[in-house]
């Protein structure tokens, strides 16, 4: 037996199709998994020929994946004028390639089970993620083993990491309200301590007598410095950018940094009734990314990515509030979606934030 864990809102997710203001079939190279490719190659008739003519096959022995050939507007060739999928219409949902079936869902396979979630890059998912659910609520289901790799013996590193993640969840949603900046500092300090505990499991050598390192910086105080933010945004502007609107937004926010820093207390007062959204975002980023430390042992980097992500979203919130005099739920959904598409779904951009030092160099 194994288990399946997912957020309580997971089963509420439904793709809104042509009602979506965005489209996950535009601007993304859509890879085709081997099983689906074989199915497309067997499909007969004119539609089968259309399928094969629309697929770019990699050279032999290449590690690249076959993918659909986007048109001049970077649209999937099967996205019709109504923004609906012709493969779905002609062949049915079971003939979609795996990435189209799954998106924006994500999965994390663990030694004795699996975790699922939905990605912030989708506006329908972002609306669910941002809703006030209180302390993290999970649906946990016992399942039949899906893989022979599921072990009867617990993985000590995995169990330790899961327990540490639960500790962070408790810091995000404490019984007594904690100011937002204090919460970020607590998370950073806790994660720094957890990295040392995790390393001690990895390398169980006797402790030496060297002096402890210097005190950790005040994470929020370091982040909300104008000079620091300017350098950070400069770095983000030199990363790969897919949507020109993202570049425009970062550039405009960079020019407004003095006012953003000065007016942040006023914004937080204005946003008091919706500050829970930052808690929800922290929960999302930590739930989705922290267990990736099993691959590289960089636990602290995963938490730093969460802290940077939520703080950058808040910076853009303040910019839009200053510009428009209001920050609506829809604006927040769009900002989160754009951030996720540009930073979270680009592994190089994610690594940039994971490794960016909080202390100015």
Could you walk me through the main structural features you see in this protein, from its secondary elements to its overall organization?
This protein starts with a strand and ends in a 7-residue tail after the last helix. It has 361 residues and is of the alpha+beta class. The strands form two sheets. A four-stranded mixed beta sheet has the order 4-5-1-6. A two-stranded antiparallel sheet has the order 2-3. It has helices at 34-42, 45-53, 86-91, 98-102, 123-129, 156-172, 180-202, 219-223, 226-237, 244-255, 257-270, 276-289, 293-296, 299-324, 329-344, 347-354, and strands spanning 2-7, 55-56, 67-68, 105-110, 113-118, 138-143. 52% of the residues lie in helices and 8% in strands. The chain contains 16 helices and six strands.
Which key terms come to mind for this protein?
361 residues, two-stranded antiparallel ribbon, globular
Question: Can you write the helix and strand succession as a string?
Answer: EHHEEHHEEHEHHHHHHHHHHH
Low-confidence stretches: none
Report the sheet with the most strands, covering strand number, pairing sense and barrel closure.
Answer: 4 strands, mixed
Count of individual helical segments: 16
The helix content is 40-55%
Rg, Cα atoms, Å = 22 Å
Within the largest sheet, what's the order of strands? 4-5-1-6
Strand residue percentage: 5-15%
Task: Kindly state the number of beta strands.
Answer: 6
Query: What's the N-to-C terminus distance?
Result: 50 Å
What structural class is derived from the secondary structure elements? Answer: alpha+beta
What's the overall average pLDDT, rounded?
91
Shape: globular
